[in-house]
Amino acid sequence: MSQRSSSTFENECQKPFALSSVFRPGLFEGRVAIVTGGGTGIGKAIAKELLFLGCTVVIASRKKDRLASGAEEIRTWLTHTGQQATLHVLQCNIRNEEEVKSLISTTVLTYGKLDFLINNGGGQFISNTAEIRLKGWNAVVETNLTGTFLMCREAYNQWMKHHGGVIVNMAMDMWKGSPLMGHSGAARAGVVNLTKTLGVEWAQSNVRVNCVAPGSSIVSPTAAANYGDLNVFDGIGATIPMKRTGTVEEVSSAVCFLLSPGASFITGETIRIDGGQSFYTTPTYSLPDSKPTDKYSWQSCFDAEGPEAAKSKL
Ligand SMILES: CCC/C=C/C(=O)SCCNC(=O)CCNC(=O)[C@H](O)C(C)(C)COP(=O)([O-])OP(=O)([O-])OC[C@H]1O[C@@H](n2cnc3c(N)ncnc32)[C@H](O)[C@@H]1OP(=O)([O-])[O-]
Ligand SMILES: NC(=O)C1=CN([C@@H]2O[C@H](COP(=O)(O)OP(=O)(O)OC[C@H]3O[C@@H](n4cnc5c(N)ncnc54)[C@H](OP(=O)(O)O)[C@@H]3O)[C@@H](O)[C@H]2O)C=CC1
């Protein structure tokens, strides 16, 4: 069977061992990557595709049990694909500076290098902004913005500054504001801006820094569980120009492209992966039923205040 062809090793209904990479096998042989949040959802898909392409992958996040079950699934899948690549698991809270330093140094000590950093780990909760407590605001900003900053800084200072490398950050559809996710929208806008800054500052070290921005539409059970509603993605497809939600593999392939030599002249960029959603609607938010706000015009002031009051202002 050709390694390049799309093939399944299991029952079509289960499809756990489907080979899906559009990139050539061996593309990332000899490379070493860290994928934060690599035990679940989008991060797990990225880890799988990198391993499939020959990369050594370290997956890192806060929860040991999620990492362990994710790693077990990935290893079983890898065995069935017939690919050989090294998967390593390290616990790390990206909000904790010491844990971030240790994640990078352990990776460099263990594998002798760090070529790729994928800052996928992150998230938020849904809330009206007026009701977000400071602790909750800080938790989300520290996770998505500060965590990304710490990971980038340590990867650069400990390895990439003198050896080059590629970083891919994670944003979201916050282009038109983020009703019900104000904390995360603000943090991800910061990530997009940080990506541009680092793309410029670190180009001299042969480090490219890019970002992907999935719409609120990439279906994964762990993402849905975070909102306590496994049906959270239902109905979103209808609001997307492509009339469907996205897959974790559709994010992973964009990440692999950005890591690949095919993207060697691209830095500071953010790629939207949202089926056109961000050009069309603001997802997950319907305008509340309310009366129109007050309108301003010279005539409306004149009408409201009367000719005498308006004249007295002249
Ligand atoms: C439509 C789908 C689109 C999908 C998009 C995705 O991104 S999918 C990806 C989806 N995956 C993820 O998002 C995974 C990662 N996400 C997470 O782990 C959490 O969302 C986190 C980032 C808030 C960290 O949480 P943590 O517990 O480790 O942090 P902590 O202990 O430092 O601060 C906790 C404080 O935060 C607040 N607070 C928390 N929840 C709520 C709430 N529901 N309500 C209100 N407030 C809430 C609260 O203030 C609480 O403290 P308090 O006042 O109660 O003492
Ligand atoms: N699914 C979607 O539609 C969209 C997703 N995104 C973003 O894509 C990324 C992946 O999300 P997805 O796979 O869908 O959802 P998941 O909830 O499955 O993934 C979130 C991952 O981040 C890890 N994580 C969270 N906080 C930390 C932390 N402080 N330190 C280290 N790791 C952390 C989690 O692991 P652990 O709990 O073990 O720490 C988990 O593996 C997230 O940044 C998400 O916000 C953006 C737009 C849309």
What does this entry look like structurally?
Mean pLDDT is 91; it is low at 1-16. A seven-stranded parallel β-sheet has the order 3-2-1-4-5-6-7, sandwiched between helices. The protein is 41% helix and 12% strand. It has a single domain (32-287), classed as NAD(P)-binding Rossmann-like Domain (Rossmann fold). The protein is an alpha/beta fold. It has eight helices and seven strands. β5 (165-170), α5 (182-201) and β6 form a beta-alpha-beta unit. The structure holds (2E)-Hexenoyl-CoA (TC6) and NADPH dihydro-nicotinamide-adenine-dinucleotide phosphate (NDP). NADPH dihydro-nicotinamide-adenine-dinucleotide phosphate binds at residues 36-37, 39-43, 61-63, 66, 92-95, 120-123, 143, 147, 170, 172, 214, 216-218, 220, 222-223, 226.
Can I get a quick summary?
This protein has eight helices and seven strands, in the order βαβαβαβαβαβααβα. With 314 residues, it is of the alpha/beta class.
